[in-house]
Amino acid sequence: MNAIVPLNIAAVRVNANDNSNLVNNFKGCTAVFDQMPYRSGSNSGVPSASTGDHVYIPLEGPSTAHNPLGAGVHVHWELPDYFRRGVQSANGADPVFPAAPNRWLVIRYLSVYNAGQYGPVQAKTWLVESDYLASQQSANLDGVTPPLVSVPVPANPALGVQPCRYLGQTLDYAKWNPAGESASNYLPSQTGEDGKPLYLTSIGFVGPSFASYYPECCSVFGFWDYFKDNTAIYQAITQDQPIQFKVSYQVIGWLNDPTIDPLVNLQQQITTQYNNLLAQWKSQGVTPTQTPADVFGTYMEQNFRWAFHQQDIVFTLDNNHNLTSLTVPEQTLCAGTMQEIVWQLLPNQTNISFLANTDANAQNPYLWTDNVEVAVGNTTVEALSALLKKDLKNTDNDPDLLGNFEYLLDAFQLGLLNGLENNANPIFNLDEQLHARAFARFPGGQLWTVQQQPPANTNLPPDPDREVTLPLDLAEQLHLLNTAQKKYDQHRAQVLAMREQLFMDWFHYIKLYVGEITDSNIPLNKLTEFLFLPGSTQCELSDVIQAGNTTGVLSYQQNSNGQIIGLGQPPSSTTSLAYAVWQNFQTLLRALKPYPSWSIQCVPAPAFWMPSDPVLLVEGDRIEPVRRNGPTDTIAVRLSGELLSEIKLAFNSTDWTVAAANLAVAGLPTWNSQQPMTADVQALVGEACLLTPMLASVVATALQSQGGNNNPAVGTGYANFITALQNAQGGLSPVDQATSDGLFAAIRKTGYVAAANPVQGTTTPLAITFTFSNAANNGWAPDPVGWNSQLVYLEFGKTRFDPFLPTFLIWHAELAPLVTNNAQNYDANNLTDYFQLDADAIDYQYKTGVNFTATNLASMQNSVVLSKKPTFSLSSQIANYLQNYPNDPAKTALENISTAYNNRSIMSQAMSGFNLAQTLRQYVPQVALNNLVSRPGMDTVTPPIHTAALTANDDNWYDFHFNGMMPVATGIQGLYNFGLLRSGFAGIQYLEIVDVFGQRMQLNTLNTNPDKTLQVISAFPLQPEQGDLANANKIFFPPRWLAPTRLWFRWLSAAFNTDISGVSGDFVEMNTHPATSPVCGWIIPNHLDVSLLFYDADGAAIGSFGIEHGAQKYRTQPANIAANPGDNLAADLKNINPNLANFMQYVDGQGGTDGFLVDLMLTIANASTFINPANFPQNAGLSVFIGRPLAITRAVVALETAGNVLPLSQADVNTTDAFPADVAADRFDYLSRQQYSSGDVSKVQFPLRLGDLTQTDDGMVGYLIETDSGYQNKTLYSPAAPTAGGNNVVQPPFNNLLLSLNATPVTVTMLVDPRAAVNATVGSLPVNSLQIPPDQYAQTMQSLAMTFFTHPLLAKQQGLTTPLPQETAYLWSWIQPSGNTINTIPQKANAVDDTVTYGYSPQTLLEGWLQLQEAETKNS
Amino acid sequence: MHTRLSRTVFQARLTATFSSHEAIQTVLQDSIPDFPDPLHNWMARLKLLYGVPFNYLVPDEGMLPPESIRFFYVDVNWVNALLDGAYSIGRDLSSAENSADLNLDRAMLSHIHPKINASAAAIRAKSLGQPGTDPPLEVISGFLLRSKIISEYPGLGVYAYEKGQTPTDPTPVMMTILRLEKLGDQSDTLLCLFVGDAFRVDIHEAPEHLHYGINDYTVTNGTITAHKVLQSFTKTGDNVTFNGPITPPTDISSCFRTVSPRTLKISDLAAIIQKANNLSAFDSAEMGFEMTEGVGLVSFNNQSA
Asked: CA of B182: which chain A residue's CA is closest?
């Protein structure tokens, strides 16, 4: 049994007019590996460079099509999604794609129109061998030289060997002889530059566009039918002679090597999964809840996104639910048809083109145009919201109103709409989410945590929230491991950046060396030595190799889900950073032995962020959805037994059955004895014969031959029967018949629910009920994806029958970038001069009236493959939502939006390359650095780099795309584009769409801006400031770093010990859940008395600052009066946390007057008004009883880039530009080079805001910036400080805390409400937050010994009894100072009520403290 | 990136909302959550001084010597402060008049106090199986009685009347008693609280103590002298006519046993009563009618009012 996966097939007709007038101006393939220069001789000739730019024709360039479309029908099949998804490995190497089917059977059914009707159908079969390698393009047996796709094979050609081959060949099926094929003629016989065998994938050697773009894969996933086998047709179509015929194509594909079929070992997998589940159910004593078929269904859905009819999976179980047999599909067949393509060139119309632009006033026949609306946003969500808002003529910007559609839609699409009313901070939440989604995430490396051992047999990923609080020793060991890991990760990132730079430098070198370019700024010999100096370490190559060696490579152990579960073999070099990680890992493993329930887990370290490229959303009548593989991620896949093989029909109460096996189609081949899955292939062909209208006559003939009464196909009914069957089948060409319904249309109807044995009834010309079925009465119609027909494209005109399937977007944009204050470099104030971060915002806002953009515009252009992700249906999402929340206040607005959105042709795509262009880089095909450009010994640089790249097996440079980017050094782009701070105003100059077959369409907007750019609708976050009329129609980009950056905002541990070597101070908590508590101490404010009570981290009282006679005064804690009668602060600070002591000394130093304390208390009171964490009720605990304790914590905050490195400028326009200057100064070392060549972006200071007063979920009360000489300005900063701000408690100005990239972290002491997180806002990154885990603060809060100053109390003659509540696990006592002694009198809880016992007089009035402290427990 | 709403505006709104309890109430309108029943029941008990240590109510025993009664008004401010104290758990106490916490409390208290009052009024009614009333608890008065009768006469009853509504007035109205409780099982101290300002307080024996009684009984040198005021009545068929008391009181000195001079000889007594009414026959109903007497009652009137 096999899986039949739907295959989408598209076809265009190219007639002679098209061929001569249009196709040259279409876009052709972009990868032309056969253009790679090489020398055929070994010792002579002009050397040339094997650089990727030679083999790449950018779509956005002006060139004419390479290999233009020939006359005939071009068929392209879209690979199923499964084959187009790559999997990235844990070490960050390039994604690995599944092997794609490499054998394709193409069957053409042809019927020529003659004398008013179509003649008999003739079939012809070809076989496309996708991975066949030819050394040259040559004429085939038909005498035609079809275009072939070139590939860079062999990867490491020897000198004089042609560095390319041609991929794919088409054979007449009858001549196919698999046994006689030589393996060396096929791709798997070759190895890549990393030495691994090559195989065919969806990305080929080009990228995601390979399999999706016909010119790129025409000989691999495409078929050109030039009709040479039919002389009459061939002549007619090549000479534009009148002719009419129709063809249908059926394509069936498979992997010729069954061992790499995606379904290999499937039965084993499902059996194992089921057995594991069964074991779990048994251990839990529950009845099995899933059958093996369910397990199969889930597995296929999760791993393949293939939906099967699970009921057709056969299995047997014994009485104990053990699996005794199971039949699952064993191999994969991809199959689809494209039917009823009519070629009609009428005698008086022989000069028409099938593909030409027929618009009135069309300027170029090859170029379609469309008036579109263009919206731009950081994300599709934003852009769509902006577009719909405009279309609904909604101009309301009031965020309070449900009528602001952009706001509503953003909230809706982000899943925040429900509960917006109940959300404490809905608007800020939305702002933060939108802001965060404008960034792309870059892996930040790995982070180790110690967690409770997860239950066996669960595949749950590690959860940072399951982390445990560790004993200090373990916490320190974990810290050491994570420090080593971070160092390793950062160095790895640095090494990768260095390798990329080395490649780009080599790229420049080799072009200079072979004379492809000249460069008066850089002498070749200087550059040669810069790159490589034999025997010396003083060159870039040596530096890069050294950096790689110092770093080493970690080998991670992964489980079946790809989750890292540990470290494998120790790295070979014991001095490498990788080895240090391994060593620390082993140490921690040993230290964890006494804790069997804990285990080390790996989670991703905090990610780095880059701004995502802006997204364009385009809407126009001619923009058809590009999604060829169905509207959802999941696609229905059939089993062999579900194919249709019979038509049952009821006519005049008589039942008839026509079996596909009995159909006789002329020209179908004898199946090759080595044809795999022959039965299924045969069944698929039979199914096509039952479903294709042009083959209805074959069915009719078979039925006719059955004879008998009431046989509708007998006699004069024959022709009517054919028409009736064709009507039931549907999918006729609009050339032949204006409308066509039938099964073809039925399965496409909205709301169609697939069912076995679909039925179609006809009334004219005969009343027949057709049932499409099979012998087992379990036949399922094909998915619409795999069953296609010729259609009319009315938005292109009534005579347009060929598809236009958008595949690429070409864009040209220009940006007026942020000015650099210091010539070509930024300076420290480059941001703060023009931008501010006020309390109102989470992003920088420019100061209006101050021009901050450079005069010269940066210009960029690129082409990008349109997303193949399913475009979600907004209207069905809205319908779902309203079903769930029928009373949502936004209901009416949402319904309006839904109506407006319905039936819109909307397409969106990120302007990929927008960011990259500003770092003077461009993607380039990854071609190995070949040692074939010169005779041996002449080019001394290329061989050693190539060798170094291949040296380490586990760290092959090619696996990490070190050769993926080329420099853009010269020209206007080299001159103006470099800027690592992306900001400014941009406009879109040009947009064009390229379709699957290379057809083109220019997109225009109804109006253009004065500078000729397209008028685009900017989403809210990309709009210029209101009132900035000069830039009103531009797209505004707030400042962003064009290097992966993160805010390193981490707790400092409150304690450390020196038992563990390597720890000598408070250490940075690497995890958000700190391994050990970050709380240095506690403060409880008493606003009634204006005093601050201090507690150490364990909850023991220390003393308090209060106001006595107008001055601040320290008092020791009541129970300590005897020991410290003089209330000496220094005496109390012995043996307490030094950071807490520092803070208390700081407070003490403010004495003399009451100003500081009054202001601080006011600040705390103000802040607490606004702190109201959402999870407060869950964490009430003791704090309900004692008010709101504040924790004194410390944290570090810094900005770091991936690898702590910055992209270098590649500019080489003038001698003083970065690259020539680096070479001249011999700055081959990356780190010293970046000091000069990264535009000084690391000098720019960025304001950071700590805390957010307007967020009730923010716990920040105040902070102090630590310096070597105490707290900066001796000032406590708090957004809640009194506005006047005297007395060292002030509101922080927006530029109070300035950070620059990769600078030393700033340490802050913070007063926080532990129930809420502290937000750190640096506009150019998503908002970051840090919270003390509830388990840690709850524990400490519970051990706070509270004293309540109480007065007066009445004590009976017999002694003091006080009305006190019982607090479980706590004890009360009365602290009674008496002279210099202190009496602590235990008090019973619930000891007093209102009953009378006389004899208590006389009573005494007392003052003192009630103390509540944790009862000592055995395990405390 | 722009923000959709100025955060400072949001913050200003927040500040404005918490600036006064009226502002909070405006925002909350009808959405103030219900205060949980157990909590306002507990607060209601506190309002009626349940759980307040006695030594705080009577700081010195000299203020309530044995066999004394002390009348008082409950200081509503004092009680509110008591409630506020109970309510303040977890509050950041502040001397500021307008702190957000305080305003929030104020906003909430105006909703909570009526509920507390209703619950307070319902405590006694509920224990008597009566429907609770919801009187205004603006004035509460009461008394503390320290006397042996508290321990020896369990079930003493109290009626209280405001001025102008006493039994001697045309329309007497009994005051609602909020609390009437002996403070402790063996206690000789009774606490009683009324709704309103009590003018006359009647303390009486337990109403269920109906008994046969005579009007006087003296023993002089072993000679018993006793009288009973009998009621005169005549019977005609099933009709009974009452004619008022027989004067002078009938001497019943002969009805006591010699050996047990406090024990009546019921048959002798019956004969005397029969004779006094000239009845031919005498049954237990007629005996009960003549002999049954009500409970003892002491009235206190506020002379200064």
From this structure: A1395
What is the pTM assigned to this prediction? 0.81
Decide if A1254 contacts A1242 (C-beta within 8 A): no
Domain stops at, among B94, B127, B160: B127
Query: Which pLDDT tens digit goes with each residue over A288-325?
Result: 889 999 999 999 999 999 999 999 999 999 998 999 99
Whether B280 and B232 map to the same domain: the answer is: yes
Structure tokens at A557: 């152990």
Task: Inform me whether the pLDDT recorded for A246 exceeds 90.
Answer: yes
Instruction: Name residue A719's amino acid.
Output: A
> Are residue B17 and residue B37 in the same domain, yes or no?
yes
User: How would residue A42 be classed by pLDDT, with cut points 50, 70 and 90?
Assistant: low
Question: What residues of chain A lie within 8 A of the CB of B1, using their CB?
Answer: 431, 434-435, 438, 841-843, 1020-1022, 1038, 1323
Who among A427, A845, A1394 is closest to B54 (CB)? A1394
Which one has a higher pLDDT value, A41 or A184? A184
Distance from CA of A407 to the nearest CA of B (A): 8
Helix (H) or strand (E) holding A1186: helix A1183-1186
Peptide bond between residue A471 and the one before it cis (omega within 30 degrees of 0): no
From the list A528, A537, A542, the residue with the least C-alpha distance to A1223 is A528
Rounded (10°) CA dihedral A1270, A1276, A1277, A1281: -170
Please report, to the nearest 10 degrees, the dihedral formed by the alpha carbons of residues A662, A667, A668, A669 taken in order.
Answer: 130
The alpha-helical segments, DSSP class H, found in A676-788 are 678-691, 696-704, 717-729, 742-746
Q: What value of ipTM does the predicted structure carry?
A: 0.77
Q: A1076 CB contacts (<8 Å, ≥6 apart)?
A: A469, A470, A471, A472, A475, A1053, A1054, A1055, A1069
Residues A204, A205, A207, A208, Cα dihedral to 10°: -10
> Which of A90-94, A605-609, A848-852 is the least confident region?
A90-94
Residues B97 and B117 in one domain: yes
> What torsion do the CA atoms of B280, B285, B291, B293 make, to the nearest 10 degrees?
-150
Asked if residue A102 lies in contact with residue A255, where contact means CB atoms within 8 angstroms, the answer is: yes
The mean predicted confidence, pLDDT, of chain B is 85
The C-alpha of A1007 sits at a distance from chain B's nearest C-alpha, in angstroms, of 26
Residue B236 bridge partners (DSSP): B239
Q: Which of A143, A146, A138, A136 is CA-nearest to residue A75?
A: A146
CA distances from A533 to A203, A527, A537, A546 (A): 37, 10, 8, 14
* Separation of alpha carbons A521 and A431, rounded Å: 48
Q: What is the pLDDT of residues A703-753, one digit of tens each?
A: 999 998 899 999 888 999 999 999 999 999 999 988 889 999 999 998 899
Residues B280 and B238 in one domain: yes
Q: Return the bridge partners of A1003, or none.
A: A370, A991
Q: What's the confidence (pLDDT) of residue A1418? A: 44
Instruction: Tell me how many residue pairs between chain A and chain B have CB atoms under 8 A apart.
Output: 132
Name the token pair of A348: 């008086």
Say if B1 falls within a structural domain: no
CB contact under 8 A, B187 and A1165: no
What's the N-to-C CA distance of chain A in angstroms? 65
Q: Which of A517-531, A606-620, A1007-1021, A1335-1349 has the lowest mean pLDDT?
A: A1335-1349
Share of chain B above pLDDT 70, in %: 93
Positions of E strands within B103-222: 140-146, 157-161, 177-182, 189-195, 200-204, 211-212, 216-220
Which residues are within 8 A (CB) of A370 and not within 5 positions of it... i.e. 6 or more apart? A620, A621, A622, A623, A1001, A1002, A1003, A1004
* Residues in Cβ contact with A962 at an 8 Å cutoff, skipping those fewer than 6 apart: A496, A499, A500, A502, A503, A949
Q: Are residues B35 and B66 in the same domain?
A: yes
- Domain of residue B198, residue span: 140-209+297-301
